[in-house]
Amino acid sequence: MDTHVKIIAWLYIGLGILGILGALIAFAAIVGGGLISGDETAIRITTIVAYFIGGFVVLISVPGIVAGIGLLSFKSWARVLAIILALLNLPGFPIGTFLGIYSLWALLDSESSRLFAGMTIESSPPIPPTPPSAPLPPG
């Protein structure tokens, strides 16, 4: 299951980076449109709109990057953040729905719970052997 968690981590990181790149491109296009017009009012308005749209997209992209980095280290807070992001991604058909379902499937699995608790399947705590009973003293 650790492979699935790492895939989810890289998906969140990759989509977050794509979101930030998209925000930069949208910012440049919107501000560029205002600059091309040459009108002072249009430049001011498109700059404000570009900051708002770009900032919003960056704001929703950064938690995915943070969650992905935490998932790579199997941090329990990152698992919680990724589950929340997965639920928020579900309505975003088709990519968000796929990522949400895949994330929920992998992160809510009992094996994943052990990974984030610091144990792997191979390193689960062994059942301690029962100590031999000491013979009772005579008498």
**Radius of gyration, Cα only, in angstroms?**
25 Å
Class from helix and strand fractions? mainly alpha
What overall form do the CA principal axes indicate?
rod-shaped
What composes the largest sheet? Answer: none
Overall domain count: 1
In helices, the fraction of residues equals over 70%
- The count of strands amounts to 0
Strand content: under 5%
Mean pLDDT level = 89
- What is the N-to-C order of secondary-structure elements (H for helix, E for strand)? HHHHH
Count of alpha/pi helices: 5
Cα end-to-end separation: 58 Å
Which regions contain 5 or more consecutive residues with pLDDT less than 50?
Answer: none
Structure description:
- This protein has 139 residues and is mainly α.
- It has one domain.
- It contains 5 helices and no strands.
- It has helices spanning 2-37, 40-72, 76-89, 95-107, 110-116.
- Helix 1 runs antiparallel to helix 2 (40-72) and helix 1 (2-37) packs antiparallel against helix 4.
- The radius of gyration is 25 Å and the shape is rod-shaped.
- The model has no long low-confidence stretch (mean pLDDT 89).
